[in-house]
Protein backbone atom coordinates (compact mmCIF):
# COMPACT_ATOMS: atom_id res chain seq x y z
CA UNK A 1 0.00 0.00 0.00
CA UNK A 2 2.69 2.49 0.98
CA UNK A 3 4.83 1.71 -2.08
CA UNK A 4 1.71 2.27 -4.22
CA UNK A 5 1.17 5.68 -2.60
CA UNK A 6 4.67 6.63 -3.77
CA UNK A 7 4.11 5.13 -7.21
CA UNK A 8 6.89 2.66 -6.41
CA UNK A 9 7.42 -0.91 -7.47
CA UNK A 10 7.94 -3.56 -4.83
CA UNK A 11 10.55 -6.30 -5.26
CA UNK A 12 9.29 -8.38 -2.32
CA UNK A 13 12.67 -8.19 -0.57
CA UNK A 14 11.99 -8.30 3.13
CA UNK A 15 14.01 -7.42 6.21
CA UNK A 16 16.94 -5.90 4.37
CA UNK A 17 17.90 -4.06 7.54
CA UNK A 18 21.64 -3.62 7.89
CA UNK A 19 22.63 -6.73 5.96
CA UNK A 20 23.25 -5.20 2.56
CA UNK A 21 26.49 -3.94 1.08
CA UNK A 22 27.12 -1.70 -1.91
CA UNK A 23 29.24 1.17 -3.18
CA UNK A 24 29.54 4.37 -1.12
CA UNK A 25 27.62 6.30 -3.80
CA UNK A 26 24.72 3.87 -3.69
CA UNK A 27 24.70 3.84 0.11
CA UNK A 28 24.50 7.65 0.14
CA UNK A 29 21.73 7.54 -2.48
CA UNK A 30 19.68 5.03 -0.48
CA UNK A 31 20.30 6.99 2.74
CA UNK A 32 19.08 10.21 1.15
CA UNK A 33 15.93 8.60 -0.25
CA UNK A 34 15.31 6.76 3.02
CA UNK A 35 14.85 10.13 4.72
CA UNK A 36 11.92 10.81 2.40
CA UNK A 37 10.42 7.40 3.16
CA UNK A 38 10.79 8.03 6.88
CA UNK A 39 9.22 11.46 6.61
CA UNK A 40 6.25 10.12 4.67
CA UNK A 41 5.68 7.31 7.15
CA UNK A 42 5.98 9.64 10.11
CA UNK A 43 3.51 12.16 8.73
CA UNK A 44 1.05 10.02 6.78
CA UNK A 45 1.07 6.57 8.36
CA UNK A 46 1.75 7.07 12.05
CA UNK A 47 -0.99 8.96 13.81
CA UNK A 48 -0.18 11.69 16.32
CA UNK A 49 -1.15 9.34 19.13
CA UNK A 50 1.05 6.53 17.85
CA UNK A 51 4.04 8.82 17.58
CA UNK A 52 3.74 9.99 21.16
CA UNK A 53 1.57 7.60 23.14
CA UNK A 54 2.20 4.11 21.84
CA UNK A 55 0.71 1.71 19.37
CA UNK A 56 -2.69 1.62 17.77
CA UNK A 57 -2.17 0.19 14.29
CA UNK A 58 1.59 -0.41 14.33
CA UNK A 59 3.79 -2.47 16.69
CA UNK A 60 4.90 -0.61 19.81
CA UNK A 61 8.50 -0.33 18.54
CA UNK A 62 7.47 1.14 15.19
CA UNK A 63 8.79 4.66 15.60
CA UNK A 64 12.24 3.54 16.74
CA UNK A 65 12.46 1.42 13.57
CA UNK A 66 11.32 4.14 11.20
CA UNK A 67 14.63 4.10 9.32
CA UNK A 68 14.23 0.40 8.54
CA UNK A 69 10.66 0.86 7.30
CA UNK A 70 11.64 3.82 5.13
CA UNK A 71 14.70 2.04 3.80
CA UNK A 72 12.72 -1.09 2.96
CA UNK A 73 10.26 0.87 0.82
CA UNK A 74 13.00 2.74 -1.05
CA UNK A 75 15.31 -0.24 -1.56
CA UNK A 76 12.54 -2.49 -2.87
CA UNK A 77 11.69 0.08 -5.52
CA UNK A 78 15.33 0.57 -6.50
CA UNK A 79 15.94 -3.19 -6.65
CA UNK A 80 12.80 -3.84 -8.71
CA UNK A 81 13.61 -1.03 -11.16
CA UNK A 82 17.26 -2.17 -11.38
CA UNK A 83 18.61 1.13 -10.03
CA UNK A 84 20.45 -0.51 -7.16
CA UNK A 85 22.99 -3.30 -7.02
CA UNK A 86 23.48 -4.75 -3.58
CA UNK A 87 25.04 -7.79 -2.03
CA UNK A 88 23.09 -9.23 0.86
CA UNK A 89 25.52 -10.30 3.57
CA UNK A 90 22.98 -11.51 6.11
CA UNK A 91 25.36 -14.23 7.27
CA UNK A 92 28.05 -11.65 8.12
CA UNK A 93 26.31 -8.35 8.96
CA UNK A 94 23.82 -7.66 11.73
CA UNK A 95 24.85 -10.95 13.30
CA UNK A 96 23.01 -11.84 16.55
CA UNK A 97 25.01 -11.17 19.71
CA UNK A 98 23.89 -14.36 21.45
CA UNK A 99 25.64 -16.62 18.93
CA UNK A 100 28.43 -19.08 19.63
CA UNK A 101 29.86 -18.50 16.13
CA UNK A 102 33.53 -17.56 15.96
CA UNK A 103 34.03 -13.79 15.84
CA UNK A 104 36.40 -14.15 12.86
CA UNK A 105 33.56 -15.49 10.70
CA UNK A 106 31.43 -12.33 10.82
CA UNK A 107 31.79 -8.62 10.06
CA UNK A 108 29.35 -6.81 12.35
CA UNK A 109 27.32 -7.72 15.44
CA UNK A 110 23.75 -6.63 16.14
CA UNK A 111 23.11 -6.45 19.85
CA UNK A 112 19.43 -7.02 20.35
CA UNK A 113 17.12 -8.09 23.12
CA UNK A 114 18.22 -11.71 23.20
CA UNK A 115 17.32 -13.69 26.29
CA UNK A 116 20.78 -15.27 26.52
CA UNK A 117 24.11 -13.44 26.80
CA UNK A 118 24.53 -10.90 25.21
CA UNK A 119 21.48 -8.60 25.47
CA UNK A 120 21.64 -4.80 25.32
CA UNK A 121 18.71 -4.53 27.71
CA UNK A 122 20.27 -6.83 30.30
CA UNK A 123 23.54 -4.92 29.91
CA UNK A 124 21.77 -1.59 30.44
CA UNK A 125 20.06 -2.98 33.56
CA UNK A 126 23.48 -3.92 34.97
CA UNK A 127 22.88 -7.67 34.92
CA UNK A 128 26.41 -8.31 33.64
CA UNK A 129 28.21 -5.92 36.00
CA UNK A 130 29.60 -8.74 38.14
CA UNK A 131 30.67 -10.88 35.19
CA UNK A 132 34.35 -11.36 34.45
CA UNK A 133 35.82 -10.67 31.04
CA UNK A 134 37.98 -13.80 31.35
CA UNK A 135 35.46 -16.18 29.84
CA UNK A 136 35.81 -19.61 28.34
CA UNK A 137 35.67 -19.41 24.53
CA UNK A 138 36.43 -15.67 24.21
CA UNK A 139 36.37 -16.01 20.43
CA UNK A 140 32.64 -16.68 20.17
CA UNK A 141 30.32 -13.78 19.37
CA UNK A 142 28.36 -13.74 22.63
CA UNK A 143 31.46 -13.75 24.83
CA UNK A 144 33.24 -11.23 22.60
CA UNK A 145 30.20 -8.92 22.84
CA UNK A 146 30.14 -9.28 26.61
CA UNK A 147 33.88 -8.61 26.92
CA UNK A 148 33.81 -5.51 24.69
CA UNK A 149 30.81 -4.05 26.52
CA UNK A 150 32.19 -4.67 30.00
CA UNK A 151 35.69 -3.45 29.20
CA UNK A 152 34.38 -0.25 27.65
CA UNK A 153 31.99 0.33 30.56
CA UNK A 154 34.82 -0.10 33.06
CA UNK A 155 37.23 2.26 31.25
CA UNK A 156 37.78 5.73 32.61
CA UNK A 157 37.54 8.69 30.25
CA UNK A 158 41.32 9.03 30.43
CA UNK A 159 41.84 5.39 29.42
CA UNK A 160 39.34 5.73 26.61
CA UNK A 161 41.08 8.89 25.38
CA UNK A 162 44.49 7.14 25.41
CA UNK A 163 43.06 4.23 23.44
CA UNK A 164 41.55 6.65 20.93
CA UNK A 165 44.92 8.39 20.48
CA UNK A 166 46.72 5.07 19.97
CA UNK A 167 44.21 3.99 17.33
CA UNK A 168 44.38 7.41 15.63
CA UNK A 169 48.18 7.23 15.43
CA UNK A 170 48.00 3.80 13.78
CA UNK A 171 45.90 5.22 10.95
CA UNK A 172 48.51 7.85 10.04
From TrEMBL:
Which Pfam families does its entry note?
DUF7164 (PF23741)
- Species of origin reads Brachionus calyciflorus
Domain named DUF7164: which ranges?
1-164
| Superkingdom in the source lineage | Eukaryota
Protein's name in the database: DUF7164 domain-containing protein
